[in-house]
């Protein structure tokens, strides 16, 4: 082997080593990129799961009139008949909707007047009045109100009946609903 051939061989070996380094280096980059992508997909899937939030429930679903109140004290209303509960953020045992993610929500409450002849009830967030309905018995004895609310993860939203007021239901006249419009 002359020096010329040796240099060519050396050059070839160098190229092979360089290529191998580039290749393994590239594989490392691809591995890191894949890990980052997988983490991002996991995050997106989790966010997507948490961004599917909607609930609707009524006090009763039967065709029998059911009445609640009048009570002496402020009483939480428990809408036990769940129609929709995507994300399971509404608890039909307590009547409380617990926000699973920060976002803009639409919350709505409709109530039909019960035995006391007047219905005054409010939607509370963490105990603070957000909005209310008030009506006394007349030709129209049902009221509804709804609002978009910016809620934080873990906020609790429920409906209360004020003292001496009453509510009734029959086939879903009195309902509590909410859904996430978009996460924020
Ligand atoms: C509820 O009604 C009772 C009896 O009429 C009355 O004594 C009481 O003050 C009322 N409570 C409220 C908060 O209006």
Tell me what you see in this structure.
The structure is a single chain. The protein is α+β, with helices and mostly antiparallel strands. The chain folds into two domains: 3-50; 54-183, Jelly Rolls (Sandwich), CATH 2.60.120. It has one helix and 13 strands; from the N terminus they run αβββββββββββββ. Residues 27-54 form a coiled coil. It is found in: Secreted. InterPro entries: C1q_dom, Cerebellin_Synaptic_Org, Tumour_necrosis_fac-like_dom. Residues 48-184 form the C1q domain.
How would the blueprint of this fold be written?
Layout: H1 3-50, E1 54-58, E2 66-68, E3 75-77, E4 81-86, E5 90-91, E6 96-98, E7 103-113, E8 118-125, E9 128-136, E10 142-151, E11 156-161, E12 167-169, E13 175-183
Antiparallel strand pairs: 1-4, 1-13, 2-12, 3-11, 5-6, 6-11, 7-10, 7-12, 7-13, 8-9, 8-11
The structure holds 2-acetamido-2-deoxy-beta-D-glucopyranose.
Q: Write the element-wise H/E pattern from the N-terminal end onward.
A: HEEEEEEEEEEEEE
The unreliable regions are none
Q: In the residues, how many domains can be counted?
A: 2
- Biggest sheet details: 7 strands, antiparallel
Question: Which range best describes the helical content: under 10%, 10-25%, 25-40%, 40-55%, 55-70% or over 70%?
Answer: 25-40%
Bound molecules: 2-acetamido-2-deoxy-beta-D-glucopyranose
Q: Roughly what is the average pLDDT, rounded to an integer?
A: 88
Give the strand content: 35-45%
Q: Label the overall shape.
A: elongated
Computed CA radius of gyration, to the nearest angstrom:
31 Å
Number of strands: 13
Q: SS-based structural class?
A: alpha+beta
Query: Counting H and I runs of at least 4 residues, what is the number of helices?
Result: 1
Q: Return the CATH topology of the largest domain.
A: Jelly Rolls
CATH architecture of the largest domain: Sandwich
Q: How far apart lie the N and C ends? A: 72 Å
**CATH first level of the largest domain:** Mainly Beta
GO cellular component, one term: extracellular region
Subcellular location: Secreted
Protein name: C1q domain-containing protein
Keywords: Coiled coil, Secreted, Signal
